[in-house]
Amino acid sequence: MEGSSVARFKEILKVFTSYGLGYLLGKKEEKEKKSPSNLRKAFEELGPTFIKIGQILSTRQELNYQNYKIMLQVINLKIWQRYFMMNLIKILKMNFYI
């Protein structure tokens, strides 16, 4: 791996472990940190690529972890809300010269 790839990999590991998702990497973690909302927060912090992964995972029928699917669907809602608000502001500025 080159320098920037190694740095990004370290950042990903740091974010996952900070949200208690180190068990995905083979580390022992406290049970209360193994929550769907922590996975969602980690994906959001890691950026667009991980948000897209979360969106894809939320639509997969073979995933039996309903709590995780619901929390990942929240990512979809947040993206649509942000998109809607940006367009609403743009329309208001165009029509009302705000």
What are the key terms here?
mainly alpha, 98 residues, single chain
Please give a structural write-up.
71% of the residues lie in helices and 0% in strands. By secondary structure, the protein is mainly alpha-helical. Helix 3 packs across helix 4. The longest helix has 31 residues, at 66-96. The model has no long low-confidence stretch (mean pLDDT 77).
Give the helices and strands, then pairings.
Layout: H1 3-18, H2 36-46, H3 48-59, H4 66-96
Helix pairs in contact: 1-2, 2-3, 2-4, 3-4
**Level of helix content?**
over 70%
Q: What letter string, H or E per element, gives the SSE order?
A: HHHH
The DSSP helix count reads 4
Global geometry: extended
Question: What is the radius of gyration computed over CA atoms, rounded to a whole number of angstroms?
Answer: 17 Å
- Uncertain runs are none
Largest sheet: none
- Tell me what portion of residues adopts beta-strand conformation: under 5%
Oligomer: single chain
Got a strand count? 0
**Average residue pLDDT:** 77
Question: End-to-end distance, in Å?
Answer: 49 Å
Classification by helices and strands? mainly alpha
Summed up, what is this model?
The protein contains 4 helices and no strands.
